[in-house]
Amino acid sequence: MSAEQKLKELGLSLPEVPSPVATYVSFKRIGDMVYLSGQGPKRADGSYPTGKVGAGVSIEDAYEHAKHTGLGLLAAMKKAVGSLDKVEVVKLLGMVNAAPDFADHPKVINGCSDLFVAVLGDNGRHARSAVGMGSLPNNMTVEIEVIIKVLP
């Protein structure tokens, strides 16, 4: 089953790739590697879920924010490569806008990681870091960046 079919089976669709808000590009391809700029859980109206995970934002809500961010990253992968079936996720960096005593960053970023595996199968499995930040742009709850390999 193709990645596009898996998305449909999951009842999900890819959003438009967001335009950069500063001096950078959405992705940069070097040979068979593509470096995707960080994204957050941007809503259709352009706003972001905001707040600190562990202080007003639950792990469950932040997991969904990370999953939503993953859909945006899949859209950027497709734009960069042409097909999600030609993508292998290599490395993911997940940043959580976290309260100082919050320690469950991996549970939040699993929202994105779980989505990648559900849609891409073994090609969605990746090395990963999940870290807490004192703040993120727009006070969004999560930001995730990804490195992928283009398959032949």
Please describe what this structure looks like.
- With 152 residues, the protein is of the alpha/beta class.
- The protein is built from 3 helices and 7 strands; from the N terminus they run αββββαβαββ.
- It has helices at residues 3-9, 59-81, 105-120; strands at residues 27-30, 33-39, 52-53, 56-57, 87-97, 127-133, 142-150.
- It has a 5-stranded mixed sheet with strand order 1-2-7-5-6, with helices on one face.
- α2 (59-81) crosses α3 (105-120).
- The longest helix has 23 residues, at 59-81.
- 36% of the residues are buried.
What's the short version?
The protein is an alpha/beta fold and 152 residues long. It has helices at residues 3-9, 59-81, 105-120; strands at residues 27-30, 33-39, 52-53, 56-57, 87-97, 127-133, 142-150.
Low-pLDDT parts are none
Net shape: globular
Report helical residue fraction: 25-40%
> Count of helices?
3
How would you write the strand order of the largest sheet? 1-2-7-5-6
Number of strands: 7
Strand content: 25-35%
Average pLDDT, rounded to a whole number, is 96
List the keywords:
152 residues; alpha/beta; 5-stranded mixed beta sheet; two-stranded parallel sheet; 3 helices
Topology overview:
Blueprint: H1 3-9, E1 27-30, E2 33-39, E3 52-53, E4 56-57, H2 59-81, E5 87-97, H3 105-120, E6 127-133, E7 142-150
Parallel strand pairs: 3-4, 5-6
Antiparallel strand pairs: 1-2, 2-7, 5-7
